[in-house]
Amino acid sequence: MKKAILAAALAAALATSASAQSVGEKSGVNSTLGIAPKTEDFIKEVAMSDMTEIGAAKIAQQKGNADEKKFAEMMITDHTKTSTELKSMVTGEMKSAIPAALDDASEKKLAKLRDAKPEDFAATYDPMQVSAHKDAVSLFERYAKGGDNNSLKDWAGKTLPVLQHHLEMAQALDKNRK
């Protein structure tokens, strides 16, 4: 069954190449197989993740409990820093990979947080942070190991411990909520 799903995903990846992000990265096939993302995909994913994290953190500062507010403050500081660093390293044609606005999926995540009742906020925000940081750790690990832009590859490796720390903190938030 897994082979059939993987084969279908790979077929879709080969059939559709005219998108802003490769299908392998969009569908999660690259992550499942441990394949490094293309540089353009890495840039787009990092920028989108940073914008989403900052947006979610701003909502958490309004709706979250004390622990979530403290975590949110760190997310704003750290993800603003990575955004600035990324933008300073990306040159030439690759600058077009940096999205100007959130995509639909990210907008929906933020809408879900904005719409959450205060008593339900932690149940939405905490697992969302765990998932987002698992994805970020995977993305940075894969690019640090196999990326094709040396400066971004080095940066991914240097940034990875911070993201792993964020994941640990998000997991603690989620665990303490239960």
Quick overview of this protein structure:
The chain is mainly α.
Describe the secondary structure blueprint for this structure:
Blueprint: H1 2-15, H2 23-26, H3 29-33, H4 39-63, H5 66-89, H6 104-115, H7 121-146, H8 150-177
Helix pairs in contact: 4-5, 4-6, 4-7, 5-8, 7-8
What brief labels describe this structure?
globular, 178 residues, mainly alpha, 8 helices, disordered N terminus
What does this structure look like?
This protein has 178 residues and is mainly α. Helices cover 78% and strands 0% of the residues. The chain has eight helices and no strands. The relative contact order is 0.13. Residues 1-19 have low confidence and may be disordered.
Helix-residue proportion: over 70%
Tell the overall outline.
globular
User: What pattern of helices and strands is seen along the backbone?
Assistant: HHHHHHHH
Strand % is under 5%
Low-confidence stretches: 1-19
Give the overall average pLDDT.
85
Sheet of most strands: none
Radius of gyration: 17 Å
- What's the β-strand tally? 0
Class from helix and strand fractions = mainly alpha
* SS field, number of helical segments: 8
What distance separates the N and C termini? 34 Å
